[in-house]
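Hi U.,

Before I forget, here's the chain from the pilot set. I'm dumping it here mostly so it's searchable later in email.
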Amino acid sequence: MRDFARLDGKTAVVTGASSGIGRAIALELARAGANVIVHYAHSAQSAANLVTEIRQLGRAAQSLGCDFIHPEGLPEFVDRAWAQFGRVDLWVNNAGADVLTGPRAKLSYPAKLADLWGVDVRGSVLLSKLVGEGTKAQGRGAILNIGWDQADRGMEGDSGELFAMAKNAVMGFTRSLAVSLAPEVRVNCIAPGWIRTAWGEQAGESWQQRVLAETPLKRWGTPDDIARLARFLLSEEASYITGQVIYANGGAER
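Structure:
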């Protein structure tokens, strides 16, 4: 009996892979046997470090930079990704504008809206369309998007409003694209709950307690929790799953 959720011989592209959930997904896909293209927007050194780790697992890996806020660069990025190993089998749209930490956290509401629209929504949509054409022509492929578990029930505050806008768009687009690309290409979406990435690590005590109160499993999720689910959804074990938004949130109420 073969190992579960193997991806041997596949080429995967993970956007926003230099840190957090994207980094965990890239490593998990490599452990499953995939060769991985590591996308980054600005963190070239972090991406290079990840490429080294993947190669140490015995897989081929390359890093590719592109700032998705500029849509005119997306077709070239997809072409470059395809050229690295001659094909792309699996594509993960994980890249998103970080408006919670770092310089973007100080932006105005309209500026944050523009960044989330440009990277999370427009970037994911246009990349998926380009990748969908290529993988459908190959006769096989899988695309995985990243949503948010609170997008369709709402959360108070500016960040809640902004992320609900962006991630609801991605989640709805996933369902429709899956129909467009079937039967050759599967398209699914993971909607994470409270995941301890950079923001979670620095969140204050009130947020720490809120996470525990809202999560029946009484803990933060980890990037690895999402990565293992991504591996399954991209594998042949999930060959009858498409057009789905899978909530990975420790049982939080939807």
